[in-house]
User: Fold dTTP/UTP pyrophosphatase from Marinomonas transparens.
Amino acid sequence: MLILASASPRRKELLSLLVKEFEVLPADIDETPNISEDAGDYVIRMAQEKAKASALKYQQQAKDNKRAVFIASDTSVVVDGLILGKPASFDEAKVMLRMLSGRSHQVMTSLCLCDLSLQRLATKNVISDVVFRDLSDLEIEQYWQTGEPQDKAGSYAIQGVGSIFVECVSGSYSAVVGLPLFETSQLLAQFGINSLREMSSK
Assistant:
């Protein structure tokens, strides 16, 4: 049994391209970066903590399926080493989008797969470069009013209206959306889950 440790509809949709059946069991964790924490270290730590928290929650629900595998992911938008989280207000979103305007930034999406006992754990950090065109203050305000930026890292969604700001992507598009499909399939295979076999079986 595969368990997705995320409530994200985007990650659920992407994972469903690789695996027919899985459960969703997100767990709340503190997502505050540590002081002076490197962005890459942060996204890996977040994925690990999400996976471990989901496994613990699974155990607390008196489920003891020893074959359960947990998959977690975390996505951060990074500019000059600074991690941009989800905006709490329009003012925060405006600051973030001004930082992204007319330049390149990184999107880091980490993966963590683990078993129920936490004895086996595999991680991966996928880094993609995204280039934004110049944004006007009016465009930033109009974009905020769509409601899309309000729960997105870096205040934009590349799979939504925010795509009109993106000149180009170098790396994994699915990772920028929230789950790198190539790397996910590779890690799933390490845990005995073959995506082609899963999706081709009736």
